[in-house]
Known about the structure:
There is one protein chain. This protein has three domains: 86 residues; 42 residues; 116 residues, no CATH class. 51% of the residues lie in helices and 3% in strands. The chain is built from 13 helices and three strands. A three-stranded antiparallel β-sheet has the order 1-3-2, with no helix packed on it.
Amino acid sequence: MSWIKMNGSLKDxxxxxxxxxxxxxxxxxxxGSLQIIWSWAxxxxxxxxxxxxxxxxxxxxxxxxxxxxxxxxxGWLEFRDGGVQFPNFEVHxxxxxxxxxxxxxxxxxxxxxxxxxxxxxxxxxxxxxxQKSDQRREEKRREEVKEKEKKxxxxxxxxxxPDSRIPNVEQLDALVDAxxxxxxxxxxxxxxxxxxxxLKGWRRVQKDPETRQAFEDIPALMARIRDGTFLHGQGxxxxxxxxxxxxxxxxxxxxxLEGRYVEGKSKxxxxxxxxxxxxxxxLKYFEKPSQTETRxx
Length: 297
């Protein structure tokens, strides 16, 4: 029986989102296809190299042409002479990886069993010991911070790095990367991911718990933007617009997630990125028809 280790957060991996973008498959379909391919590879190799196979063979396993190339583009597959290679195979699916996972599971059961038989006095002692350990770690952390500040003061460099002043900077970078993968024409390109307007808006939304939560599921947000055809081709529509409020006082990102922009509104054309290719988005839907043009209807 094939054994593979599936990460519970696989659906949120950037590589999965990249394959979804490149193949057009849904996120669940991508995960299912990966499970099929990895299970098949696990039955045939201990080092990640499968001989005599190529991209067409991988595509045939999941019945989707281009899936192997998408795996290669995100770094999860390599094409070599005489076969295909699954990178880092020995870390996740080799015999040693299986042994590590089994040992971790066994140790977890042992801890649960011993915890059920523990004595109240022993539990109290462990709790107090844990508290003291936490206090020592906190004191040590404070001392390290003070020592660092002292060294910075002595060196004359007291200013923190620019990125350290940006809240949730990793999430912002992931959001920018996902936005840049959207089809051309949906919004203006991001010229500076550390631009003043962008960072000001990002800091503002981080202060609102509900709005901050709206950016946690990046794939879902990007799907709403992609499906929100009313936004496509609008001159005002750019990345920073996500961090602003509309005239009604509501956050734009929340309105996008609610699906308000999925359909065009009255007297507005249906937006399609393919129709605005090669033409500035700010002009396509805002210029008036010439006198010689014949209006429909």
